[in-house]
Design goal:
The chain has 348 residues and is α/β, with parallel strands linked by helices. The protein folds into 2 domains: 137 residues, Rossmann fold, CATH 3.40.50.2300; 203 residues, Rossmann fold (3-Layer(aba) Sandwich). 36% of the residues lie in helices and 22% in strands. The chain contains 13 helices and 14 strands. The strands form 3 sheets. It has a 7-stranded parallel beta sheet, sandwiched between helices. The protein has a 5-stranded parallel beta sheet with strand order 2-1-3-4-5, sandwiched between helices. Strand 10 and strand 11 form a beta hairpin. The chain starts with a strand and ends with a helix.
Length: 348
């Protein structure tokens, strides 16, 4: 299968660089190049590309405004291409929340991954496999105000219960959708979401604003407590839990990548199997690859409840599919039901 890509950027130099990078793969064809949102809109209608690469900062209509229109009117897999400074990380998170499949740093053009492939090529291939529909990225319809989100609830978690979540491609909007329905006093929850180091602090802050529980980037020694959600920092360390079942805490461990990732979902899930056992619930969500499958199976073998997101609601049905195929998933559910099932299982 040849992936048909449309490149959208108002810089001629970047148009050439991105196009050359993509056409370095025999399996990608650049079918068009647009310099503005208006030109891109016409090309999307005429060419029906499999994937659009889109600059965040453009003259006239910004990439974020155009992305929102694409996801509302003609959902298409989109990869944002930008310079990921600290300000760019905020814009990129907004793009992922709207419905972009991934974000690529312009400074990494020609950077080769572990298998010698272009990082941008890998991301475009991932995007081509993603599911998009008008329902994804509809932020206005789903996000509560912070005042609504922090309202008190009557939920009480069972003593020692803990939730572990793993996600990758498509995980930003999926986690917002999931956690906005968690109560303010939810079970202690630890999350590994594959994303760059510069993103995770901003993402934790965003989740904290939008969702009822308190969300923070995990710190070494942070004690797991009801109403708290801990997001693994990106890039340099793995997140694990450890300690006595009645007083578990976060620990950050240096080490090689696992399944191509650091932090790795497998590392988190294996630690939950060891230290939380039958008190834990593991949840594997949308994402490319197989990270988390073996760890979730270890959790199930240790007596934990294990949930997997189903294919129909996954933006990329890769990680949940691998976990289901190896027998790690006790129940496979759509996103709209998976959070309620987890809370029901953990209720006192």
């Amino acid at each position: 299968m040849t992936v048909r890509a449309l490149v959208v950027d108002d810089s001629r130099t970047m148009q050439q660089l991105v196009s050359r990078e993509l056409e370095g793969s025999d399996a990608i064809s650049v079918v068009g190049i647009a310099s503005s949102a208006q030109e891109a809109r016409q090309m999307i209608k005429a060419l029906d590309p499999d994937v659009v690469t889109l600059d965040i900062e453009m003259d006239g209509m910004s990439g974020l405004e155009f992305l929102e229109r694409i996801m509302t009117l003609r959902p298409t897999p989109v990869v944002m291409v930008s310079s990921l400074t600290s300000e760019g990380a905020e814009a990129s998170l907004t793009a992922l929340e709207i419905g972009a499949i991934g974000c690529f740093d312009k400074r990494d053009l020609s950077l080769r991954g572990e298998a010698g492939k272009s990082s941008l090529v890998d991301l475009v291939f991932t995007a081509a496999k993603a599911r998009t529909s008008p329902g994804f990225g509809n932020r206005a319809a789903r996000v509560q105000s912070p005042a609504q989100a922090k309202a008190a609830t009557t939920y009480r978690a069972r003593d020692r219960s803990v939730i572990g979540i793993g996600a990758s491609t498509g995980g930003v909007e999926t986690l917002i959708e999931l956690l906005r329905n968690f109560p303010v006093d939810c079970p202690p929850t630890v999350i590994v979401q594959h994303m760059p180091e510069s993103f995770t602090k901003s993402f934790a802050d965003r989740l904290d604003r939008l969702c009822p529980p308190s969300v923070e980037e995990a710190r070494p020694g942070a004690v797991l407590a009801p109403g708290k959600v801990y997001l693994a920092p990106g890039g340099l360390q793995h997140l694990e839990i450890a300690g006595d079942p009645s007083r578990l805490h976060c620990r950050l461990i240096e080490g090689d990548k696992m399944n191509g990732h650091r932090p790795s979902v497998d590392r988190l899930f294996h630690s939950l199997a060891r230290f939380a056992g039958a008190n834990a619930l593991g949840m594997i969500l949308t994402g490319m690859g197989n990270d988390g499958a073996k760890g979730l199976l270890a959790m199930r073998n240790a007596g934990a409840m294990t949930l997997g997101q189903d294919q129909a609601s996954s933006i990329v049905y890769g990680m949940p599919a691998e976990a289901f195929a190896c027998g790690a998933v006790t129940e496979q559910l759509p996103l709209r039901r998976i959070g309620a099932r987890a809370l029901e299982w953990c209720r006192a």
